[in-house]
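TA notes, week 10

Several of you asked for a full example with nothing omitted. So below is the full record: structure tokens for the whole chain, then the designed sequence directly under it. When grading your own attempts, check the secondary structure regions first.
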């Protein structure tokens, strides 16, 4: 049998940290005197911390020095960490542990492929850090999603060919990265938003052993929509 592996995105797939990113970014925007809405926050999903700040400053039409940007990156993360350090296993998104159990039973290894520099801390907070065969995060990549780098490094850590890797992602940039890497892309969340994915599910609760086997059968040929 071919050797297969799984790569999980973190934020929005395993944990719902978008709400904490939102509160921390909003705090910064409040201080700068402009409104930052949940809709604006959608634009930051899957995007690196530095890029997120640039998008936020564009929204507020704010021009600041490089030095000030560095200050804001630090203060935003300090604010975010206040929420993260309070997380526990109850914040794992439904279906996560069951899916990891299924993969363990099948002998399929999995790694993390996330843009977040806080990924190791978050996985430790929710108690599943030790289950991963490797962690590829914002500290290990030079190019952010939609560049495939994060997932290609993940495949190397797994020792699995990219085409035999399945990627679970909730962001458009992440699906694009997985597709570029020639991996099987699985969109978790809104089907219309993630319409470039090979497969779509509302949440990880829908992934059982049969589904896993289907996912490993390879990239889906796009069907003609009616
Ligand atoms: C991604 C999130 O997983 O990580 C983004 O979807 C976030 O919203 C990015 O900006 C970077 O996270 P962190 O924890 O390094 O600030
Ligand atoms: Mg995500």
């Amino acid at each position: 049998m071919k050797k297969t592996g799984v790569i999980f995105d973190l934020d929005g797939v395993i944990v719902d940290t978008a709400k904490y990113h939102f509160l921390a970014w909003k705090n910064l925007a409040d201080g700068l005197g402009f409104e930052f809405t949940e809709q604006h926050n959608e634009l930051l999903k899957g995007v690196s911390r530095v890029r997120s700040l640039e998008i936020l400053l564009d929204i507020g039409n704010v021009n600041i020095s490089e030095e000030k940007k560095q200050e804001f990156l630090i203060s935003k993360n300090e604010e975010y960490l206040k929420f993260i350090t309070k997380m526990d296993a109850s914040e794992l998104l439904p279906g996560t542990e069951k899916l990891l159990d299924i993969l363990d039973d099948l002998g399929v290894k999995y790694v993390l492929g996330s843009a977040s520099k806080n990924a190791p801390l978050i996985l430790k907070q929710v108690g599943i850090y030790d289950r991963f065969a490797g962690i590829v995060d914002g500290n290990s990549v030079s190019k952010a999603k939609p560049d495939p780098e994060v997932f290609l490094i993940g495949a190397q850590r797994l020792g699995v060919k990219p085409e035999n890797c399945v990627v679970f992602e909730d962001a458009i940039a992440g699906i694009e990265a997985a597709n570029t890497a020639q991996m099987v892309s699985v969109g978790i969340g809104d089907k219309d938003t993630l319409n470039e994915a090979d497969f779509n599910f509302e949440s990880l609760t829908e992934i059982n052993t049969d589904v896993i086997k289907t996912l490993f059968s390879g990239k889906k040929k796009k069907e003609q929509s009616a």
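Residues 10-11, 21, 44-49, 52, 77, 114-118, 138 surround 6-O-phosphono-beta-D-glucopyranose (ligand 1) (CB under 6 Å). Use that as a sanity check on your answer.
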